[in-house]
């Protein structure tokens, strides 16, 4: 497996990563993804892709380093998804290990993510990865 941090403008963002990311975020179009990354990159948003031995993209992660008063410095994972056809093959573990390396290099105190309450398979994976539920996330839709 090969894991690559993709820079803005890299065609692999839409050609390879976006189809996998869309499995988790089906509302994303090419245009919306470009808009989000265009604005989000200035806020620290980065994307990482995992490629299988056959060269196909099998996993995607969106992440950023966040500095705040509660954690001081943490790596926050916005998105973490393994292609449906590649689940339970070590892709998620490899992506998390790669992100943990970024977190440690940046002096982060934690690697953190939110997961929808209905995503029980993902929760089992996070528990296997030695992650803990440490907070509730509250959301108020402003539609």
UniProtKB/TrEMBL annotation:
<keyword id="KW-0808">Transferase</keyword>
<feature type="domain" description="N-acetyltransferase">
    <location>
        <begin position="4"/>
        <end position="143"/>
    </location>
</feature>
<dbReference type="InterPro" id="IPR050832">
    <property type="entry name" value="Bact_Acetyltransf"/>
</dbReference>
<protein>
    <submittedName>
        <fullName>N-acetyltransferase GCN5</fullName>
    </submittedName>
</protein>
<dbReference type="InterPro" id="IPR000182">
    <property type="entry name" value="GNAT_dom"/>
</dbReference>
<dbReference type="InterPro" id="IPR016181">
    <property type="entry name" value="Acyl_CoA_acyltransferase"/>
</dbReference>
<dbReference type="Pfam" id="PF00583">
    <property type="entry name" value="Acetyltransf_1"/>
</dbReference>
<keyword id="KW-0012">Acyltransferase</keyword>
